[in-house]
Amino acid sequence: MKRTLALLALCCVWGAAATASAQPRITVQAGWPGAKIAPTMWGIFFEDINFGADGGLYAELIKNRSFEFPEGLMGWSKIAKTGSAGDIRVEEYPSNPGANAHFLRVQVEKAGQGFGISNEGFRGIGVQRSKLYRFTLRGRQTEGSPIVLRVEVVNADGRKLAEAKIGGFGDQWQKRTAWMQANTDEPKARLNIFFSGSGTIDLDMISLFPRDTWKNRENGLRADLVRMLADMKPGFLRFPGGCIVEGRNLEQRYQWKTTIGEPSERKLIINRWNTEFRHRLTPDYFQSFGLGFYEFFLLAEDIGAEPMPILNCGMACQFNTAELAPMEELGQYIQDALDLIEFANGPADSEWGRKRAEMGHPQPFGMKYLGVGNEQWGPQYIERYVPFAKAVKDKYPDIQLIAGCGSDATIFPNGPAEIAYLWEQWRKLDNVDIVDEHFYRQPDWFLENTDWYDDYPRTGPKLFVGEYAAQSRGVASPLNRNTLQCALYEAAFMIGMEHNADLVIMSCYAPLFGQADGWQWTPDMIWFDNLRVVGTCNYYVQKLFSLNRGDRVLPIQVTEAPKIDGDTQALQASSVYDETAKELILKVVNATGDAVETTVDIQGAAKVGSTAKVTTLRGESLQDVNTLDEPKRVAPIDSTQPVDSATFTYAFAPYSLTVLRLPVTQ
Ligand code: AHR
Questions:
Q1: How far, in Å, CA of 604 to CA of 583, rounded?
Q2: Closest CA relative to residue 308, chosen from 430, 422, 400
Q3: Which member of 36, 113, 162, 280 lies 3.0 to 4.6 Å from 153 by CB, making a disulfide possible if both were Cys?
Q4: Is 375 a catalytic residue?
Q5: 467 lines ligand 1 (CB under 6 A)
Q6: CA–CA dist 498, 508 (Å, integer)
Q7: What are the mean pLDDT values of the chain's consecutive 10-residue runs (666 residues total)?
Q8: Domain boundaries defined on the chain
Q9: Do 477 and 16 meet the contact criterion of CB atoms below 8 Å apart?
Q10: Mutate to test the pocket of ligand 1, among 48, 49, 238 (most ligand atoms within 8 A of CB)
């Protein structure tokens, strides 16, 4: 109800009387284009949670490739078959206190029937039949008879799936490469390296990448996962999170400068999700930063998304240590932000622009947005935001700054009061362009609150719904599932965002990725294992909204809508106009279990086409989910619908999101 009133106010009253008809009616004013829809309206949120980067999007297949994990041999084991003798141990470079401080020393006394090392990958190593894999390492042999490495990928039974040999090591460090071709599909392989000869050999950066990464880049990303993102045509890419920006303490915060340059020189840190949840401890979760800020900017460029970095503003996660950088030390955080903007946008001969150019991208990335902190709150946040924002705006007035708004009020220490306090502050300042709100709530909340933004003031900062996802059980409960119900109710909420597109200019579901064996947080938009990927129902909702963004909101009224659970409107609709395609786009959520025969009335159009393109996302039950074994249980289905006049009847399928595109001349 609140929504209808606000809409009428917003869109000019165009005949407020609801039609008293038993059949639901959707009336769209095609001739009254309203607010512009920002190109950033539907975007994506990347965070290195759930093995999102290492073990996920980052295509490296070897865990702890440079022996920098605090337990130096984590992920590795020694192979000592009959008759063999030797030792392996992690050593420190005597003169290298940098990011890559360790290497593996292998002393081969007798090869016997096999002496070597084995890597378990990230819950296994995924290889695909006939595909090529690039094996690389750095090595030197300091003594003994020539040692030759036999590298093999094997399955759990020890069957060989791919093999290569490397020999001829000298006493100076040298990078070596060998190609391997897999003879079968295997999601849970291992990599073994056997040593023949005898003596001492030192190894480092032992790496295995598929050749077919996204765009075949050497330090590349998993092509199948990027494809899922590219197919969404997202308006922006938020990176790198999420709480990972903050760190459990400041030392473990995300520092972009340590994530660029040579991958071997990027300083590894523990992933903050490693120990976050007792029920999902992940002791082998670290951040190698192979997917760092340069790769982020490239990815955003590749998929046509605005890059949206979020930086730490001197505050560690307030759910953990809540450590604060003293105000006199804030300068380094601010400098990091200024340098990041130069790295992204500066000329190739500027200090940081040169580093970008040296990495292969002389052209600027054209970064426009910057998030200052993630889920921060309290006066300490304001205290830090103010000088941070001033310094950025003084030097780069065009950068749009995003301020946080704490966490979701329902899981927030002091609930709505904290959020109200933040909003009061943000409205007082003149350098907050966009405020980022988060919603992790039960599905019903999303359906019941499609009018959430209707009453927000129209002056002051714009809105970024920067993290949201319906939680089928409870916030971050390991029992949460990506049900159709969650997805449809989120779609209803997104319809509400679209009604408010004059205010809400960006939004994204969170988190993005979940590794089937290595996750900490659920639900997630895209699930994967070492070979497969599945888009959840939520993924398809996000994708349908993004592919059908449109340019202008059209006024819409829904009357005689069916109700569920007492008073909740179960038919939710929005409409936009696509100025390029000259199509009116209608998005409708039917949350009932029945088909809903509806009169669709397009008013004010000069001409309405005779065929509508229809895409329907529907299921048999609200509890339907897509899984890796059944990835398309709920997936969009395309059809066409003859339309004989500007007023027609359409039966919206049970439990569905329908996107209907109709040629319309305004
Ligand atoms: O999306 C998962 C986490 O939820 C994010 O890291 C954090 O910002 C939020 O609390």
A1: 14
A2: 400
A3: 162
A4: yes
A5: yes
A6: 13
A7: 37 32 91 97 98 98 98 98 98 87 97 98 98 98 96 98 97 97 98 97 98 98 98 98 96 97 96 94 97 98 98 96 98 98 98 98 98 96 98 98 89 79 96 97 97 96 98 96 98 98 98 98 98 98 98 98 94 98 98 97 97 97 98 98 96 98 96
A8: 5-37+551-665, 44-49+214-469, 76-210
A9: no
A10: 49
Residue with tokens 């935001």: 385
In terms of pTM, does the model score above 0.90?
yes
Per the CB < 8 A criterion, the answer to whether 279 and 299 are in contact is no
Yes or no: say if 512 and 524 are a contact pair by the CB < 8 Å rule. yes
- Whose Cα sits closest to atom 6 in ligand 1? 242
Nearest to 540 by CA among 505, 599, 589: 589
pLDDT of residue 415: 76
CA–CA gap between residue 10 and residue 6 (Å, rounded): 6
Report the alpha-carbon distance of residue 645 to residue 666 in Å, rounded: 15
d(C-alpha 273, C-alpha 308), whole Å: 22
pLDDT value of position 666: 87
Largest CA distance in the chain: 93
User: Measured from the CB, is residue 318 less than 6 Å from ligand 1?
Assistant: no
For 5-37+551-665, give the CATH class. mainly beta
Q: How far apart are CA 341 and CA 346, in angstroms?
A: 7
In this prediction, residue 410 carries a pLDDT of 74
With a 6 Å cutoff on the Cβ, whether 583 touches ligand 1 is no
The residue from 47, 276, 342, 375 that is catalytic is 375
337 CA from centroid of ligand 1 (Å): 21
Residue 423 dihedral angles phi and psi, to the nearest 5°: -60, -40
Q: Which residues of 325-360 are buried (b: 16+ CB within 10 A; e: fewer)?
A: beeeebeebbebbbbbbbbbbbeeebebbbbbbebe
Say what the pLDDT of residue 20 is.
33
**Residue in the block written with tokens 């992790």:** 440
Residue with tokens 């340019």: 551
CA-wise closest residue to 346 among 357, 333, 335: 357
CATH of domain 44-49+214-469: 3.20.20.80
Is residue 333 within a helix (H) or strand (E), and if so which, with residue range? helix 330-345
> Residue 538 Cα, ligand 1 centroid: separation in angstroms?
17
The DSSP bridge pattern shows strands 552-554 and 556-559 to be unpaired
Fold of 76-210: Jelly Rolls (2.60.120)
